[in-house]
Amino acid sequence: MKTDVKKLKYITEPIFDDIKLFEKEFRKAFVQKYV
């Protein structure tokens, strides 16, 4: 059970990092477009 959680975290963490990075870039582009 513990290894499953570790594996899941190992898989999901890079995805969350990608989402955060995408969100940051999206916000930057959005601000540049409308300011």
Annotate the secondary structure layout.
Layout: H1 2-34
Explain the overall architecture:
The chain is built from one helix and no strands. The protein has one helix spanning 2-34. It has 35 residues and is an all-alpha fold. It has one domain.
Keywords:
about 35 residues; mainly alpha
Short description:
This protein is mainly alpha-helical. The protein is built from one helix and no strands. The protein has one helix at 2-34.
**Range of strand content:** under 5%
Distance between the first and last residues' Cα = 50 Å
**Low confidence ranges:** none
Helix content: over 70%
Radius of gyration: 15 Å
Number of extended strands: 0
Strand/helix succession: H
> Largest beta sheet, briefly?
none
Q: Assign an overall shape.
A: rod-shaped
Main structural class: mainly alpha
Give the count of structural domains.
Answer: 1
Average the pLDDT over all residues and give the rounded result: 87
Count the helices. How many? 1
